[in-house]
């Protein structure tokens, strides 16, 4: 019997350079992680932590201001290797799909693994919910996470650019979109022509 599907909603926050010009060798590093595991359409477990960057350990003022994050918070976080071990543990399930809002999270994770000579932790299917949202509603451009929530007349969970809150908000949008898909797939109610065999009716009146 096939194991139930696990959906993992993942969100990362990254380091940023001070200005538009990147310093020599700079690349975005993960400094916060939020994960929500869902099995059988029920939230199974979640995880949240700050992560210490390796190559550029000191946050820029722009990064601290944009993410509302402090150097001490990041300094108290887990190591990148600890993060990889946790992601592996979440992904260690036979039927798993990783869902993100946009492709940047997995792109940066792959780059961080490459820079640290660490194996990519997931062997799973991947879904970019922002692209699904774009196609579903026929939008020209990709919609930001919290704008998408507002378009549904809802509010995001907690605080934007907090990794766990964004992962939970992605999970909420997933449910909203899936419900809309199911609604649109419902068969149309039968018409009177579907209910009545008019050939029998005409034969009855002809006799």
TrEMBL record:
Q: Which domain of life is it from?
A: Bacteria
Regions that span the bilayer? none
Keywords of this protein's UniProt record, alphabetized? Exonuclease, Hydrolase, Nuclease
Tell me the GO molecular function terms: 3'-5'-RNA exonuclease activity; nucleic acid binding
Tagged with keyword S-adenosyl-L-methionine: no
Q: Where does the record place the Exonuclease domain?
A: 6-183
Q: List the PANTHER family hit by this protein, alphabetically.
A: 3'-5' EXONUCLEASE ERI1-RELATED (PTHR23044), 3'-5' EXORIBONUCLEASE 1-RELATED (PTHR23044:SF61)
Q: What is this protein called?
A: Sporulation inhibitor KapD
Origin organism is Metabacillus indicus (Bacillus indicus)
Taxonomic lineage is: Bacteria, Bacillati, Bacillota, Bacilli, Bacillales
